């Protein structure tokens, strides 16, 4: 099967002759080939978007919001189909794939409030006979470049907000799982979106560079690994665009001696191993405070990890996690496990031998647990993005706090404790964008905003919520005076309010 693009309201076959393999990670088979667009194909999509945006930007925001309202209904109608397609290309379980769709749907629901979000500000009588008002206007044509790990949620975060704000959108999804983004574009069209407002152009670096260099694209939102985030940010800014890029992570969870150890262990299992650890908000480092806490924690984690049900998504809703996304990802993560052993960390649970009967070519890796990890090890410094949890023992709270504070990434973090003072101190001091208190995956809800600090994010403003609307709009401020307020004669000094 060949997967093409969705441009100007129609499916279009790829014309470049270049393709990328799309795997079924559970079987290891290539199930489709996705076309990789040329610069000319990208330009065609941008031209369609420029034309379409003129009418869409002038459509009143309530009418634009109604498209999203209908879109939400269609997502519910097609939930099973979307989740199955997502699982087949990504490998995550069906309940988790539904969560991927729902977290995007929640942003679509928030964007139904676009008329409210687009409201400006008005100051009557700011000076003699002078009124001042600020309005928000769409940017025009904007783009989103998205990763493989949330093929429904992250595209929706971006295009729902941008489109509700009156922009036309170019989505360049991950080439590893392109089907769900295309289905989302079809549903937006069914919901009444005019042709050319949401275009899905599949591709690789060539398409990304075409976006970054296109003079008609005003803003670019990127999510993916830090190296590419930095590249996209630097190049996009150099071409005069508004750019926000969200990158990789190494999320620590601190477990204080007073924490409920059963709850902490359950939370760690879900957040470290869910989706095979392929989440930017996965906890990949556990920091128990004190040797006794560490011993109790590792004792509780070990049997839970050994009992994890690793299987294809077709094996039922009680599967804990599935395969990694590609063979390359599997080799990379396995390489980190080998490296951790070589670096001297204690591999308490070794998932490398895991084999799935009947799915021997699938990209499966069992859950792995390292204890006695230290700050200088590569398995601590780098993002692994797999089902591997590292335990790094801290002598006290100050030492524990210093670990995430000193790490180059700053996406998410959590603390488990019963003590309000400690929790409050942690939330206040930590230099990380999203913080959980007895919550292991503190992904903010749709009407707050999502974004990391340090090398987990480049640029200004977060994703979705009020920041999403700010990113995809610009402010215009009008100062108005009517003839009755005008004094006679020319004024040569800078006007003041005196
Ligand atoms: P990736 O960086 O490989 O790909 C992201 C996007 O960039 C894709 O659309 C891809 O086609 C494109 N791309 C890949 N190589 C490129 C190149 N050389 N030049 C230009 N574009 C290129 O990321 P991924 O593997 O798809 O996703 C996993 C990463 O995303 C992890 O690091 C994870 O932490 C991160 N992530 C971050 C967040 C966040 O909000 N901070 C959310 C989800 C995922």
Distance between the termini: 71 Å
Q: What class do helices, strands and sheet pairing give?
A: alpha/beta
Instruction: Please list the strands of the largest sheet in the order they lie side by side.
Output: 15-16-17-14-13-19-20
Which oligomeric state applies?
single chain
- Let me know the largest β-sheet: 7 strands, mixed
Helix fraction, binned, reads 25-40%
**Rg to the nearest angstrom?**
25 Å
Mean pLDDT, as a whole number? 97
Report the strand count. 23
Shape: globular
Q: What descriptive keywords fit this protein?
A:
498 residues; alpha/beta; 7-stranded mixed beta sheet; 6-stranded mixed beta sheet; 22% strand; binds nicotinamide-adenine-dinucleotide
What secondary-structure arrangement, pairings included, does this model have?
Layout: E1 2-3, E2 5-7, E3 10-12, E4 19-24, E5 29-35, H1 39-58, H2 61-77, H3 79-90, H4 94-111, H5 114-117, E6 121-127, E7 130-138, E8 141-145, H6 153-164, E9 168-172, H7 179-190, E10 198-200, H8 205-213, E11 217-223, H9 226-238, E12 242-246, E13 251-255, H10 261-273, E14 283-288, H11 291-306, H12 327-343, E15 346-349, E16 368-371, H13 378-381, E17 388-391, H14 397-406, E18 409-410, E19 412-416, H15 420-429, E20 434-437, E21 453-454, E22 457-459, H16 465-471, E23 473-481
The protein binds nicotinamide-adenine-dinucleotide.
Nicotinamide-adenine-dinucleotide is lined by residues 145-150, 172, 174-175, 204-205, 208, 223-225, 228, 231, 246-249, 280, 383, 385, 411, 452, 456.
